[in-house]
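can u do me a favor
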């Protein structure tokens, strides 16, 4: 583990939250990735934040927490060679796991509907990261295929029979 890198992420995010008038501590964790390497998790301690502040940090459909994560990755990996870059995941209140569980439930529901009716189904309002995750979920269903259609920000995931 690169302690310096994850500590820099922790410090940077804590300073950003302070500037946003949402002072919070940030816990760190290193999660091994299937592809090798490590993912760095920065979890915002929401104990000192009000419910409206937490909702503001997460944003509608996670847009704000995704933006914070994007800024974190761009800032902390800026100017580094690809092999020295690390993926940072920013979370608060276990939002990422809750959303992952929601996406799995949606995938199972849509898979059942497509298998039952034979008609393709479109899943709307997913971020690009969520669409990638859904493509992965649907690989478990041998008789189904997925594709992304449309242009951002109106890109959809379409599920159909093979």
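np, heres the sequence
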């Amino acid at each position: 583990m690169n302690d310096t890198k994850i500590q820099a992420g922790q410090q940077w995010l804590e300073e950003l939250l302070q500037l946003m008038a949402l002072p919070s501590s940030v816990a760190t964790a290193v999660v091994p990735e299937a592809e090798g390497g490590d993912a760095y998790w920065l979890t915002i301690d929401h104990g000192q934040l009000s419910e409206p502040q937490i909702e503001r940090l997460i944003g509608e459909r996670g847009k704000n927490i995704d933006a914070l994560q994007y800024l974190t990755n761009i800032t902390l990996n800026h100017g580094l060679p690809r092999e020295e870059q690390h993926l940072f995941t920013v979370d608060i209140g276990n939002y990422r796991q809750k959303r992952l569980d929601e996406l799995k439930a949606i995938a199972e529901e849509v898979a059942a509907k497509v298998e039952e009716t034979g008609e393709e189904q479109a899943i709307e309002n997913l971020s690009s990261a969520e669409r990638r995750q859904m493509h992965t979920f649907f690989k478990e269903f041998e008789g189904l295929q997925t594709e992304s259609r449309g242009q951002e920000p109106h890109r959809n995931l379409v599920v159909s029979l093979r």
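DSSP finds five helices and six strands in the chain. hope that helps!!
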